[in-house]
Amino acid sequence: MSVDLPPDFAQWLALREPADVAARSAELVGTVRAALTGGGPFVVHDLGAGTGSLGRWLAPLLPGPQHWILYDQDPELLARARASLPATAGDGTPVTVQTRRGDLTRLSAADLADAALVTASALLDMLTAEEIDQLVAACAKAGCPTLFLISVTGTVRLTPADPLDAEIADAFNAHQRRTVNGRRLLGPDAADACVAAFARHGVTVETRPSPWRLGPDQAALAAQWFTGWLDAAREQRPELTDRTRDYAQRRLAEIEAGRLDVLVDHADLLALRR
Fold it and tell me: Is the overall model pTM greater than 0.90, yes or no?
């Protein structure tokens, strides 16, 4: 899998990090923590690590000692991630880090053989059905808990509502399901596809909602999210461009004035053999 990242991608990751932290399911993390028995060290494989946001949040919540293996295709992001993970877990035991650059869709159970946990955040919607099947097969064969967080579901709610909201959401979701270099992305269908794939391997999946709730305190993120959301919808359906000019100005003004609340729904998944 090769994905062309925008030049400001690291800035976007930094902007969204607080919203991701607020949204992720602490309940599922509690289940993972209970499953990590013994003295460790616990090896955690973080897929699509980006700048390390997930590790910065999760490592202090897990028992130690821990060894994190961070995967990404971008060496600069990996360098940032490696430098930013905490040195100790919440119980004071050490956290060590290594990085691996490569194609996540080629992971095998052998790559994950030492894993106590496989995890990822905001990854699944960028995969195809075949890639999710391959990734799930590797995780299921590895036999450890798998925690996939912040997967988009396609549900967006803007308050107050506007008649154009639903049409733009439909166009955006179609864009998320587009074909890129011969790969048909699953977008908002990815979480359900992942649950079904684990079920075929006899692995139960617990799911929890993990919505972004963006109000006046998250105006910068809401504005950037809205702009990207609308741009993708216009790319999918160019006829929307002229029809949404006034809409865009009005919505951005509402965000700036603190008068627009945004809910972007996600799902968190924990696959765990019982």
Answer: yes
